[in-house]
Amino acid sequence: xxxxxxxxxxxxxxxxxxxxxxxxxxxxxxxxxxxxxxxxxxxxxxxxxxxxxxxxxxxxxxxxxxxxxxxxxxxxxxxxxxxxxxxxxxxxxxxxxxxxxxxxxxxxxxxxxxxxxxxxxxxxxxxxxxxxxxxxxxxxxxxxxxxxxxxxxxxxxxxxxxxxxxxxxxxxxxxxxxxxxxxxxxxxxxxxxxxxxxxxxxxxxx
Length: 206
Known about the structure:
Elements: H1 9-20, H2 25-32, H3 36-48, E1 52-57, E2 65-70, H4 72-75, H5 82-97, H6 99-114, H7 122-135, E3 140-145, E4 148-153, H8 159-164, H9 166-181, E5 186-189, E6 200-205
Antiparallel strand pairs: 1-2, 3-4, 4-6, 5-6
C-alpha cells in the first residue's frame, strides 16, 4: 500500500494539482516551478504506480493534447474518514437493533462479495480468494503446509473500525469472508492486528 507522504514532495504536489483537474505536463511544471522534462519523469512513475492516467483532450482547434488525470487509487491516498462513518453506523445499528442484527447485515455483505467465486475450485479458488482480499487491501499471502492452509494479512484496511467493533469486524466480516470465499469448514483465527499483532493469521480447514 502506497503512503502519500512517502512519495516525496514533488509527486504529492503533482497529485494535489491533479486532484483539482486534469492538466498537461507543461501546466504541472509551471505550477510546481520545475522543468517539463522533470514533470514528465514524475508523471511516468505515477502512471506506473497506478496513481495517474493519461487522456487526450480536444480543444477548440488543433490536435488533442495529452493531459494527466488522477486515478481513483490516487484519490484514495488523500485523507479519508471512512472509519469514523462506519464506526458510527455500526454503533447505531448495534444500539438500535442489537449485535446479532449487525452481524447478519455483515454476513449478507460477505455473501455478495464471495458470490463471484462460486464456480472456482481448488488452487484456483484460493488464488481468487486471495485476490478478493487483496483488492480490499488486506495484503494477503497464502501458505499451505502439511495439508493446512494459512492466510496471513499484513494490513487491516478498516483497523480503526476493528479496534472498536472487534468481534463484528474480525469475526463477523474478515474471518467470515475467508470462510465463505474458500468454502471452508472452519476458520481459526490466530494473530489479530486489532489486538496489537503485526499481522492477522487465519488457519483454514477446507
